[in-house]
Amino acid sequence: MIRNATKTTVLRALRTRAVSRGYASLAEKTFPNEPTAPAVATAIPGPTGKEKIAALNKVFDSAATTFMVDYEKSNGNYIVDADGNTLLDCYAQIASIPLGYNNPTLIEAAKDSKTISALVNRPASGNFPSTNYAEQISGLLKYAPKGMTEVWPGLSGSDANELAFKAAFIYQAAKKRGNADFTPEELESCMRNEAPGSKPFAIMSFETAFHGRLMASLSCTRSKPIHKLDIPAFHWPKAPFPQLKYPLDQNVEYNTAEEKRCLEEVEKLIKGWESPVAAVIVEPIQSEGGDNHASPNFFKGLRDVTKKHGVLLIVDEVQTGVGATGKMWAHEHWGLDGDGLPDLVTFSKKAQSAGYFFRDPAIRPTLAYRQFNTWCGDPAHIMITNAIFREVAENNLPAKAQEVGDYLYKGLTAIQSETGKISRVRGKGQGTFIAFDLASGAQRDQFVVNMRSLGVLVGGTGAQGIRLRPGLLFEEKHAKIFLDTVKKALEQSKA
């Protein structure tokens, strides 16, 4: 028994015993030196950060820079800026950090000789794959969405979606062509960017969707004008996405009718668009466009409509994939099975690599160089992805994200009721993919600043929303800090 020790010493001794007995949380075991609370000493950015931003701006467009980060000092769920301010990160590099900063498992994976070889030799995997590339790809497929038997790697979320579009176009053209060869007219006209060689196919997306910033993916992005201004675009159809009323249990009749209306418009557009719709692309949760949700029934109906008309369904899991919604893949919440499964699922962000999974072998082109680029993905990052998937699966992190998400949702709905300063708390049952609205865009922007000054980093979404995107080792103790800080930030805001 310890009689004369200080309270701090006693607590440290008890914690040490707990760790030795296996009582410590995964975050504590992974990040034993993680800060216990935010610590802010200067404005953010502070003097050092402002100086570094100014230096960066001389060689790089830093207009969107929030603050400069000291990644070597960042640890677990905490991010450290150039001035030494320590913030609880509930945004995680726009949902792309899966397992916290400086995760030791990922550091070891990066040190592996095969990873180093892939970095310094950077294989052109389409022509000259490494001898262990099949092993790397098999690792991805082990954790692929249900029914997906093949994968094509890419370089980013935008790239993954554009590659999926290409796959859909090639598949639909091959289905029309049958076993016939390309005609001379097709071969000649495609070089002029004209039909019949350049097929007039379309990809359908939804209002307020975000699918990337490359040319074709940008044509499917509908979230903010600033993304699209001045950029040529394909004339592709845009369907309405359900705008649900909250709380859901008090608006069942309205929301059911709203989803029915949107599905009817989807079918109308597919049947009447000026060119054949090759595929429909949809996010399980519209993240950039406002954290907009729809029910499993809507997505089941979307699958039925696309199957009815021979249109491929692409599920964009770039932001929702890899566990944070309480499932490894968010579309698992829809309860699809068999032929009702999506045709293609794109991924990136938390996976730390990118690409698309697919289940029908006919989606794979039959000729070389049809789906191709120099690197065909990034083998070094695929090895990191495999390490991420193993950690997520072996530690059942989607279930842990669901537990923390339930705690967060309960806490935010209580704040909504108590203060009336936030509204439309949404994401129940969707892990930590939770969002809420402020009364206006200006109040939302001020709230983000207030939270940052109090040591918590959050992100905006849509016109006036706040979205949570913490990593998968974000636990209840971190969630409590977040909720307490929300109350303080709201007190600082104008009513």
UniProtKB/TrEMBL annotation:
Pfam families per the UniProt record, alphabetical: Aminotran_3
Highest taxon of the lineage: Eukaryota
Example GO molecular function: pyridoxal phosphate binding
EC number: 2.6.1.19
GO (cellular component) term, any one: mitochondrion
Catalytic activity: 4-aminobutanoate + 2-oxoglutarate = succinate semialdehyde + L-glutamate
Keyword terms: Aminotransferase, Pyridoxal phosphate, Transferase
One Gene Ontology term from the biological process aspect of the record: gamma-aminobutyric acid catabolic process
Cofactor(s) the protein needs: pyridoxal 5'-phosphate
Subunit-level organization: Homodimer and homotetramer.
Stated family: Belongs to the class-III pyridoxal-phosphate-dependent aminotransferase family.
Name used for this protein in its record: 4-aminobutyrate aminotransferase
